[in-house]
Specification:
Number of strands: 0
Helix content: over 70%
Number of helices: 2
Radius of gyration: 20 Å
Length: about 55
């Protein structure tokens, strides 16, 4: 028996997107801006590494 019995591809897509959004909202409530802050720091670190590499060439 298929997991999505009698569902169209669009219904499956919408269901999966809604589930993903629900999980993201739950993570946001639980961790706040933690992931955004870490992502921002990672981006800054990568930019600094690239700048140092260019300087040393």
């Amino acid at each position: 028996m298929p997991f999505f019995n009698m569902r169209t591809p669009d219904e499956i897509r919408i269901y999966c997107q809604n589930q993903s959004l629900s999980e993201l909202y739950a993570l946001k409530r639980r961790y706040g801006n933690f992931f955004e802050e870490i992502g921002g720091k990672e981006t800054l670190n990568k930019q600094e590494i690239i700048a140092l590499e260019k300087k040393n060439q």
